[in-house]
Amino acid sequence: MATNYTNEQVAYMIDKYNENPSRDTVETLATELGKSTKSVIGKLSREGVYQKAIYLSKTGELPVTKKEIVVKIAEALDGEEENLEGLSKSPKKELKYLLSLVE
Question: Which domain holds residue 78?
Fold first, then answer.
């Protein structure tokens, strides 16, 4: 079975990626090694070093669903989330405000 990467290439990829774990590093490695970015990501994943990028919302926060906010509101009020299901139809901004009031 043919291998896509030599042991030296794998060691080089791991070292470079660990120095700066970013998408730019992956793209640079792909160019240097003549491979696709998907191939490099796949190899780094199999080697256990690839870190998936963390998604942030437009406001720079970790995304939170309306349902999760309603659950937190229910917990803060010592209530049951099933009784607050209608709140999930409210705008997220207002739900966050309500949560800040009850916490």
Answer: 66-102
